[in-house]
Amino acid sequence: MLQQLANGVFAGSIYALFAIGFTLVFGILRHLNLAHAAIFTGGAFVGIELATRFDVPIWLLFPIVAGAGALAGVLLERTAFRPLSGRDDEHFAGLISSVAFGGLLIALLHARYGTEPQSFPSSYFPNRLYEIAGLRVTLMQLVTLGLALVLMLGLAWLVSKTPLGRAMRAVAENPTAAKVVGVNVTRVTAGTYALSSALGSVAGVLLALNLGQANRGLGASIELIGFAVIILGGLGSLWGAMAAGLILGLAEALTVTYFDSTWRGMVAFALLFAVLVIRPKGLFGHVKVREV
Amino acid sequence: MLAGYDTLITTIALGAILAYSFHVVLMAGQLSLGQAGFASLAAYVSTLVVPAEPLFGSLSPVLVGLPVGALVGAGAAFVVGLPVLRLRGVFLAIATIAFGEMVRVAMTNAEWTNGALGVRVDKWVTFDFAWIIVAVLAYLFWRLGPSRVGRAFAAVREDELAAGSMGVNVVRTRMTSFVASGAIAGVYGVLFAYFFGRITPAAFDFSLMMDGLVTAVLGGYLVFFGPVLGSGFLTVVPEIQSALGLDAGWVHPLVTSLLLLAVILFLPGGLSSLLARRRPAPRRVDPDGTDLAGLPPLPEPGTAVAELRALGKSYGAVQAVREIDLEIRSGEILGVIGPNGAGKTTLVNMISGLEPPTSGEGEVLGVALGSNGGAHRFAQAGVSRTFQHSKLFDRLTVLDNVLVGTHVVSRPTYLRRLLWLPSARRDERRARALAWAQLDRVGLAERAHLRPGALSYGDQRRLEIARALAAHPTLLILDEPAAGMNHVEAAELAALIKALADDGITVLLIEHNVRMVLDTCTRLVVMNFGEVIAAGRPREVAADPKVVEAYLGATETGESEYV
Lengths: 292, 563
Prior knowledge:
- The complex is a heterodimer of chains A (292) and B (563).
- Chain A is mainly alpha-helical and 292 residues long.
- Chain A has helices at 2-29, 36-53, 58-81, 90-113, 139-161, 163-173, 175-180, 185-211, 218-233, 238-258, 264-278, and strands spanning 118-119, 129-132, 135-138, 213-214.
- In chain A, a hairpin with a 2-residue loop joins strand 2 and strand 3.
- The longest helix of chain A has 28 residues, at 2-29.
- Chain B is built from 23 helices and twelve strands.
- In chain B, a hairpin with a 2-residue loop joins strand 11 (523-528) and strand 12.
- Chain B has three domains: 6-205 and 221-227, no CATH class; 301-369 and 473-543, Rossmann fold (3-Layer(aba) Sandwich), CATH 3.40.50.300; 383-472, Rossmann fold (3-Layer(aba) Sandwich), CATH 3.40.50.
- Chains A and B meet through helix 4, helix 9 and helix 11 of A and helix 4, helix 9 and helix 11 of B.
């Protein structure tokens, strides 16, 4: 039981890390970026490539993957979102163009790696097991949880304390006004995508490390859970996404314990559906007053 | 010649039908992605209840299954829509995705569906049958375009607030598109089952929804044949590719993604915008005697149009409007002036039904303020308005904008248009005649074929007035119509307002152009901090020291410069 809860927390930390990138873009730019799952998958494959072909040690792996993710994020913003800005159907078209960008990325991964799952070398990460207060946890799980927490807290610090974060919040509040007072909206937008995608790709490589391997469907499997997390947490709320990621991880672990594992998907969506209908602003979000 | 291509051709048809279920919600501006759930439910229920052998020896299961599937899909959409349609945009999309996934998980776990293995049925769907369904759908959507409900869909898509203020029942219109989408998805589900001969829960998953959405958008959702075009394109491209010998599995998704990206970036109207003919400038329709005869007479001058008693509105701790007593009588031009933030727009929002009051009561043309139902009830009663920041329907032409305004004075034409009844043609002609008459009234007839974005600022304000006039209003509310106009334009507008009053329309005018208000209005109300501080004849009010202090400002001698 307690063991299941602990596993839920580890899974939940990856959900949360995936979802905060998602929610960051939505909260600041009001874009629903459906390429996020593909970037997540891309991060996993880049990580495996680096580990198998170049023997990159794990401490160097994460920064390189994050850098690659950031680059992909900038590219995504350039091709799929920036050309649409100012159009009547900007938000809707952005949804479709990000689907296209994601599809493109997955097709390229397909071309490069074929259909077989790719694996990390078996000895890549020490398979160490600890007993803490009667719970069995692997070193990998601890690294995952630790890294996810550090990255999420780092993001929260960045958004609330740094000049870039302040500019982001200004753009979130009112892009036009932000531009008027001298915020470089174009650069902030690109920066937001870079950050979001860096976090997403690190989440991808973390999940792949935990599973030992990755296939092209890795992101699709977590994308729907990502929706659930950002809605539960309140779209655009960073702390909400973190809490909701953990809650979902726990809820899933409990479902698997008490019901059949095939019902796992139901929990996330039943929760999501209920929250949307009863409290659309999410568990932790707060509504903005809409102007008429 | 078609031999050997049966499957390909049927696949195009099925893809088009799925895309139509997205088309109908996109037309109404709703991003709903629950179609896979509706299709799944419809497919399972129909395979469960429809006997495997032909009924009466001749009705094949798919023929019996289609109405069953359509009903199941529509019913499910209605039930899901009741809670979900309070949401909009991305929230609606995610809630409907969640519904689809819940159906998938439930079907995987249920006993009667045989779990993940699925259900086998006989194959009954042939390509001609599938294409008949496509033809029927295409016909339904072709006739929908220039009909009253078709215009309501477009209006809701472009701007819900403005649509409601023009008398369109926004809630019902959104639900209609949602239920229609469910019915079409249900039809798709049944056809899918009897074409492939097998259904599994996994067949109706998230990727199916994305496929449907992509097909609908690629084809273009503003033109009725968009889904067919999108599906044909997406099905034929991989065929061409394999004919060229590019068989690697990744080529197809790569090409499709690139094409999708190119279309969404460079062809906002989808592929169909390449084929759609340039529309000729709309032909002018002049009203004949019978057109105007159907319109209800305006009330006699002096009848009460609106009565407000101690009306108030607060947003949390902010009291925007407090204790307003006001009577509006037919035939007057009532001006409301006051500094920014005085509560003028809040007042007219309440009178036009956009916001309920939080205290006090009032009645406008027989409709009680705050009664359930929303803005469209006020519009139907004869209140019509323009907005401080114009809310035009950007992707409709000038003429079509005004046509939406005729919503409350015209009858539904869609069902009669399906049957080509002459009375539908007459009603549509009459709506056009009324719309042209309003364009003449404000002087925009030459620009009827343009989009609002191509108009000057002053012309956009005039277009909003024309749209409001098309509803044949008893009470016309103009919220800062002269803002941004130059002197000449403002003078023309003043003349227009006087002419409207001469025609018997009661006008409520909010305006900062004091000269214009003094010249046009028969009565003036001055607001400050949510309260009426003065009311009466314009000249007397303008001389009131309180008004001078609060709003007008004084000349050096201490006199109001407007007296």
